[in-house]
Amino acid sequence: MATWLVFWFVLPLLATAFSWHSLWYELGLFGAHPTIQYESFYLESPEVDVLKWDPRCDDGYVFLSPRGHFYPEPGPLIYDNAGSLVWTENRFGMAMDLKVQRYKGQDYLTFWAGDDDGTRGLGSYYMLDSSYEIIHVVSAANGRNGDLHEFKITENGTALITVYEICQADLMSVGGPKDGWVYDGLFQEIDIETGELLFEWRALDHYRVEETYFDIEEKGHSAEPGDAFDYFHINSVDKNADGNYLISSRYMHTITCISPTGTILWVLGGKRNMFTDISADGSATGFTWQHNARWISDGVLTVFDNGAHEHLRTSDHTRGYMIELDFESWTATTLHVYDSPGHFSSHSQGSVQVLPGSDNVFIGWGKASAYTEFSLDGEVLCDTHWGPRALFWFGWVKSYRAYKYSWVGRPRSPPDIAVNDELRSVHVSWNGATDVVGWLVQRADDSNALDSEFETVDYVPKEGFETTVGLGDIDGHLRLVAIDSSGEELGYSNVFTLSHTGSNILSLPASMEDSLQHMLIAACAVGAILAGAWQGRKRVLSWLHY
Ligand SMILES: *[C@@H]1O[C@H](CO)[C@@H](O)[C@H](O)[C@H]1NC(C)=O
Q1: pLDDT digits (tens, 9 = 90+) for 529-546
Q2: Which of 100, 270, 521, 527 is disulfide-compatible with 405, CB 3.0–4.6 A?
C-alpha cells in the first residue's frame, strides 16, 4: 500500500510541483468529481488539477464531452488553456466527440448527441456556429441510427459516421450458436447539404467473425438480438485526399485502409496484419483495443493504443503512437510514442490529435479523466487531470475524446449576473464567450436610460469563467459591459439597481457564516470517509492488488 502510494502519487507529484491540494485531489479526497460552482451560472464544471504547464503548449481551447456515474448533467464542455470553464451546456444530454471542424470555409462546433446502449450510440450529429446556434443536424442514412464513435467532416463537405447494426450471423466458429446475432460495424459517407448517402461499407462483408479478439462469453452466447456479439467495434473513420478510408476496429485490433470502391487495400495489426513490424518494441503492429486511427500524411498515421480492455491487458499503460508505413517493403515502424504520464492504463476510449499550428500532439485519455499535450517527439509539455488519478480505472468521470482547437465564441444571450446586495458586489460570467478580457461597470440615473446615457465608472479585468466585481459605493442603475482586447463592447448584462444603503447591523458576517459551514462540511466529510473506508476496505484492498 505504502509503496503503491509513493509510486503512483508522491513521486509523480514531486517530479512536478508538489502541492498538498494536488495530492488530496489525486487521491480522491475531494470526491470522485470535484467541481467548481458559480453564482451567476447554473451548471458546475469539473475542477482541474494542472500537473504540468509549459509555454510551448498550443494556445488553444480544450474540447471535452464529460459524462459518467458521477457526472450528473453530461454535455459538451470547453476549457481554456488553464482549465477554466469557457462553455458548457446540458440541453443536448449526453454528447460525444466535441470538436471544431470546417465546413464550407466556416468553423463549426460539432458533436454527436443521443442515447447509448452500452455498445453503440443511437443519435444524431450537431453542428453549431460561433453563437452556439444549431445550424445543421446530420442523421445516418437508410433510416439507421447515428452511432457515437465518429463524426468527421471531410474537405469535400461530406460527413463520415459510424453505424452499429444488429444482424444475424453464424457464430459457431467462436463457440456461439449457428443462428447468432452480432453488432455489425458500418460506416457511411453522407453529403451534409442534401443528406444523400454517398457510400456505405459493412464489416461483415469483409471480416470473418473469428478474426475478433473479443470473447463471446463476455456477452452471453448471443442467441438473442438483445444480446448481440460486438465482434468488430468500429470506432473511427477517416479519409485521405486519394479517397481512401481508414477505419479502426477495437476488437479486431486492426487499422484497415479501404478503397473508394470498398475493397480492403491493407490491414495493419490484428490477425490479418500485412506489415512486417520493424519497430524496436513491436508497437507498430502490436497495438490492442485501440481507438482513433488518423491519417497524418500518405504513409503516416496516429493511433491511441489502449493496450487494455477492462481486465484484459497487453500493456501496463496506455499510449499514443505515430506510425510510418512503407508500401514498397511492406514494413511498419513507430516514429513516436506518447506514454501516459505516470504510466496509467485507460481501458476504453481515447484520442490522439496532431495540432495543426505547433505539431504538438494532444491526447485525451478517454476513461481516465486526463489530457496531455506532448512535443512531437514525446516530451510531456502540459498535463491536466479533471478527475482524481486514484479513480481513473472506474471511469466515473470521462470523456470519449479530447481535442484542442482555436475557437471564437460569440453567444447571442446576454452575460449572466448574480447581484449580492449585502456585499455590494456582482458576479458576472458569459457562457461561451471567448474574447472577453474585462468588464466595464456602467451606471445611469434612469432605469430606462438609453445606451448613450450610461457612463463608465469602473473596469475590472476578467478572472476565469466568473468575475466578481466589487461595487463599493457605486449606486443607481448599473450594467456590466464585456469588452475585448481592443476595447470593443461585446455585450451588455441586464440592468440591475443598487441603492445606497447604510451599513448592515448585527448580522453574522458572511465570512464567519462561511467558515462555520466549511467546518461542518469538513466534519461530515471526515465522518463519511471513515465510514466509507471501513465499509469498502475489502474492495479497495482487492483492487489495489488487482
Ligand atoms: C474530394 O473530391 C475529389 C474530387 O471528386 C476527390 O478526388 C477526393 O478524393 C475527395 N476527397 C475526400 C477527402 O473525399
Answers
A1: 665 555 555 444 444 433
A2: 100
